[in-house]
Amino acid sequence: MTTTLDALLRELRDRLQAAGSEEPGLEARLLLGAATGLDTSALIARGLEAPTASQRERADALCRRRETGEPIAHILGRRAFWTLDLGISPACLIPRPETELLVERAIAAIDACERAHPRVLDLGTGSGAIILALKAERPAIEAVATDRSPDALRQARANADALGLDVAFLQGTWLDPFKPSDAFDVIVSNPPYIAPDDPHLTRGDLRFEPREALAAPEAGLGDLYTIIDTALTHLLPGAPLLLEHGFDQARDVRVRMEQEGYREVQSLRDPAGHERITIGVHA
Ligand SMILES: C[S@@+](CC[C@H](N)C(=O)[O-])C[C@H]1O[C@@H](n2cnc3c(N)ncnc32)[C@H](O)[C@@H]1O
Questions:
Q1: How far, in Å, CA of 198 to CA of 246, rounded?
Q2: pLDDT tens digits, the chain, 283 residues: what are they?
Q3: Dihedral, CA atoms, 146, 147, 152, 154, nearest 10 degrees?
Q4: Within-domain flag for 80
């Protein structure tokens, strides 16, 4: 029987490591925190205390779920993104750290806009990660977000309410919810871009996330192309479209943007050196 919280933490870490976790120490702390209601500093300060029987049982049950491969964000129902603590359900994509680069560039685009209340649209908002980060950083924006999935939108609205952030959420396919006269200062999107036959879809966290949040036709480029083709009429003159895409899709995205008449088309590299974001501006 585990004698102290420290020993229980080590036991969880060893189990997670044996199950193939890449961050067993961090995940063990998160799971033990959820099982005990103690944050990291309290776990350290009270490490020599004995866990209660129910804390041990809860920790064991949470660890079992992780050992079967369930994403840590689903087990905890939460994921940190940007400066925000977001509620996560299996209906939405688990926000990824690389998407923070898209947020950084969208903030720069908002700051370059001369209007007092720039209209900013996030297409395929999922948990609301991108638009909520933007609204938190730049409260003056008029924030709008869409998703095809009503369940994802429910989670995004719950996150907006919990954070006290005012965002208009609309259900529908890409730009379909808008009239031709609806125009924006910035449009941003992290759409599905994985090829439907990509074996990664059957591995790791991706197995547990909605297929419609991950995979797109045309070798993963179909939704990117639809957004590129339809966003132009909803961008104000000089306004940018910012897209996240796969590390090997930048060239195809740039070519499509140029064919459609965007100007100043450029791709940006993530810290690993991969071109993961492409921006084009309405002429
Ligand atoms: C890769 S996830 C991105 C979620 C979130 N923006 C993020 O970065 O964490 C793509 C999102 O697009 C939505 N989506 C997929 N197809 C769509 C469509 N045809 N129209 C609107 N949204 C769609 C999915 O439901 C999902 O929430």
A1: 12
A2: 668 999 999 999 999 999 999 999 999 999 999 999 999 899 999 999 999 999 999 999 999 999 999 999 999 999 999 999 999 999 999 999 999 999 999 999 999 999 999 999 999 999 999 999 999 999 999 999 999 999 999 999 999 999 999 999 999 999 999 999 999 999 999 999 999 999 999 998 899 999 999 999 999 999 999 999 999 999 999 999 999 999 999 999 999 999 999 999 999 999 999 999 999 999 8
A3: 40
A4: no
The answer on 63 and 109 residing in a single domain is no
User: Which are the contacts of 25, defined by CB distance < 8 A and separation ≥ 6?
Assistant: 13
Q: Is residue 180 part of a domain?
A: yes
Domain hosting 246: range is: 89-281
Question: Ligand 1 centroid to 11 CA: how many Å?
Answer: 38
Which among 212, 224, 228, 243 is the best mutation to test ligand 1's pocket, defined by most ligand atoms within 8 Å of the CB?
A: 212
Measured in whole angstroms, the distance separating CA 19 from the mean position of its chain's CA atoms is 25
- Cα separation, 145 vs 127, in Å, equals 11
pTM: 0.94
Distance from the alpha carbon of residue 82 to the mean position of ligand 1, in angstroms: 18
Residue nearest to atom 14 of ligand 1 (CA): 124
The ligand 1 atom at the shortest distance from the C-alpha of residue 149 is 25
If asked whether residues 203 and 152 sit together in one domain, one would say yes
- Any idea what the CATH number is for the domain that residue 216 is in? 3.40.50.150
- 141 and 273, same domain (yes or no): yes
